Structure to design on (277 residues):
């Protein structure tokens, strides 16, 4: 198995996630795209661990999984709060902090 | 590279075929996540992507990470997403305005970024062959991970547990009704 396989797959997943973050208007869908990005990073870390023949990449991938779980919990709580205050989670309508 | 050269090298052909099949499914599902107009469908396509990532972990000899991926992402994060969708949407079904007005800008940005990443990856790691691990190494992977967590990475592990605690408390504080 070539290292380029894993790295190109995760680059493609990363770019699809970036497109989702830019294009989506619904806050929950933006969070899903962020999950795509974090998973592509994890795939890279595991591939590098296999390439270097150690387990440090696995350890960092597990760290990223834990941080992603925390991020989704806080992010969805924020989305719920925004929905409760505005009855909408469209990100382009959140303009109160615009200068 | 010709097929004969691939067969003559020490690349495992069955492993590669499995990789490409799973990768094609994952890419199709990822495109569906960012292109479907139904939020629930996007969440279900995301399950396919996350399961495909777990399968790729197993191909890369990372069983512990794969099981953690299934438990944390497919088990917990997807339930959170579905609850978030249910609590923030009055109607289930296709939505007409899930994209921003300027969503087309994302296509050149993503393509340009993929071009740069693909060029640099191919330039740096072309012909780097991943050597399969021996069964002894695979059997001791989990032991090595726990040695890492309780040895060199003990302080980051404790810090991460505080991050999780703070996130749990913060999510409760943000989401409760006062």
């Amino acid at each position: 198995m070539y290292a380029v396989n894993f790295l190109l797959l995760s680059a493609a997943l990363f770019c699809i996630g970036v497109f989702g973050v830019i294009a989506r208007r619904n806050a929950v869908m933006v969070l899903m795209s962020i999950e795509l990005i974090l998973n592509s990073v994890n795939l890279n870390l595991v591939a590098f661990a296999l390439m270097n023949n150690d387990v440090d990449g696995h350890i960092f991938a597990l760290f990223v999984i834990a941080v992603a779980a925390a991020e989704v919990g806080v992010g969805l709580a924020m989305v719920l709060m925004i929905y409760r205050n505005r009855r909408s989670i469209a990100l382009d309508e959140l303009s109160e902090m615009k200068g | 590279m010709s097929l004969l050269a691939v067969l003559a090298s020490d690349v495992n052909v069955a492993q590669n075929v499995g990789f490409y099949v799973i990768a094609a499914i994952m890419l199709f599902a990822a495109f569906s996540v960012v292109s479907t107009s139904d939020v629930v469908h996007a969440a279900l396509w995301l399950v396919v992507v996350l399961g495909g990532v777990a399968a790729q972990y197993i191909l890369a000899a990372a069983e512990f990470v794969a099981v953690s991926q299934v438990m944390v992402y497919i088990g917990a994060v997807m339930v959170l997403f579905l609850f978030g969708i249910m609590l923030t949407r009055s109607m289930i079904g296709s939505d007409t305005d899930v994209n921003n007005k300027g969503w087309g800008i994302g296509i050149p940005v993503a393509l340009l970024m993929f071009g740069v990443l693909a060029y640099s990856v191919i330039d740096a790691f072309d012909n780097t062959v991943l050597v399969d691990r021996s069964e002894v190494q695979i059997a001791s992977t989990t032991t090595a991970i726990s040695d890492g967590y309780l040895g060199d990475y003990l302080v980051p592990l404790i810090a991460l547990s505080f991050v999780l605690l703070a996130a749990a408390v913060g999510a409760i504080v943000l989401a409760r009704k006062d």
About this structure: Chain B has two domains: 1-91+116-132, 133-178. Chain B touches chain A through 90 residues (CB under 8 Å). Residues 148 and 154 of chain B are 8 Å apart (CA to CA). The mean pLDDT of chain B is 87.
